[in-house]
Amino acid sequence: xxxxxxxxxxxxxxxxxxxxxxxxxxxxxxxxxxxxxxxxxxxxxxxxxxxxxxxxxxxxxxxxxxxxxxxxxxxxxxxxxxxxxxxxxxxxxxxxxxxxxxxxxxxxxxxxxxxxxxxxxxxxxxxxxxxxxxxxxxxxxxxxxxxxxxxxxxxxxxxxxxxxxxxxxxxxxxxxxxxxxxxxxxxxxxxxxxxxxxxxxxxxxxxxxxxxxxxxxxxxxxxxxxxxxxxxxxxxxxxxxxxxxxxxxxxxxxxxxxxxxxxxxxxxxxxxxxxxxxxxxxxxxxxxxxxxxxxxxxxxxxxxxxxxxxxxxxxxxxxxxxxxxxxxxxxxxxxxxxxxxxxxxxxxxxxxxxxxxxxxxxxxxxxxxxxxxxxxxxxxxxxxxxxxxxxxx
Length: 393
Ligand SMILES: NC(=O)c1ccc[n+]([C@@H]2O[C@H](COP(=O)([O-])OP(=O)(O)OC[C@H]3O[C@@H](n4cnc5c(N)ncnc54)[C@H](O)[C@@H]3O)[C@@H](O)[C@H]2O)c1
Hints:
It is a single chain. The protein folds into 2 domains: 130 residues, Rossmann fold, CATH 3.40.50; 195 residues, Dihydrodipicolinate Reductase, domain 2 (2-Layer Sandwich), CATH 3.30.360. It is 29% helix and 25% strand. The chain has 9 helices and 17 strands. The strands form 3 sheets. A 9-stranded mixed sheet has the order 16-15-14-13-7-12-11-8-17. The protein starts with 5 loop residues before the first strand and ends with a strand.
């Protein structure tokens, strides 16, 4: 596809919607020239006041009160779907049917049946249909992945991965879409989906899980008065609703290459707002990424002689990771970046893919990858229900 201009819309103006809006605004500023102008057409949200605020802040032309307005606008080529997970299917199907490329937030849905339907309709089109796994685009993660793939890090056998957060520790936090749904759709799908995908992105496919435990700590929450975005606190009504999904999930996993993992995720982990860590250890290597230091990673290998062997800190630089080449306004090593930048990198790849623009960057996850993570989540849930039994993926 080649165009003089690409028109985009973001559905959902909440916590992650803004990151997508900013990503489209920035996408043309990185990774060299060659893209046509990106027209920031519309932000759509049932909370039209919020849609207007976000449209104004990020320079979008229009604010719409419903996603259908974007679906029915023939000038829009591509959309990000950034609303609660149970709404993704209906919107994605309508957008794909209207011929629009889709970047859908993770997980693709709350149900495997919905996600399979989304994959099916996407596979019947020539459109790009991606799952927004933003952490994949971290240059340090890409660097570790490359080092394992090209054999520089030899024989990884053990993975230790966690994504812990504290956004739900306060029982006075309002009821919202994140706390509704079956077990497995809570922390495991919200945070766990990221770390499961990341572990597989770096170490290859997971073939079985075992030892799963899913727990719910805060079992009911008050409904908010008015609209709530992301993890915000709010004025509460007297009315309560049960929390029906998991606050915490732990499990072990076995990879196709024989490596084994322990993986933990929680939204009630006090004092840890956004604690994502992936450690890969083997007989001749060790690599660790810790989101608290997003622009560096630790590596240990056989290169130094035994007297100086040990962990080395690698600061991400243009030559460390191809994802970081020309990815910030001031190029160089140890020039950091933030979480918002990962959305820009992801959206740049989405646009390159739509336009079939030559790119050295790995493709984003597609909806099939998102469905695959959901199948792992389903296996973890089964393991939990069967007292920790081993369940094949
Ligand atoms: N990649 C990441 O790091 C990341 C981070 C946060 C959230 N997410 C994902 O993004 C999605 C949204 O999460 P969030 O935290 O931004 O949610 P949010 O609750 O902050 O925002 C959702 C927005 O959707 C709007 N909305 C609800 N129903 C709508 C409808 N029918 N049409 C249009 N708008 C509607 C709400 O008014 C709200 O503004 C989820 O799928 C979540 O998993 C991803």
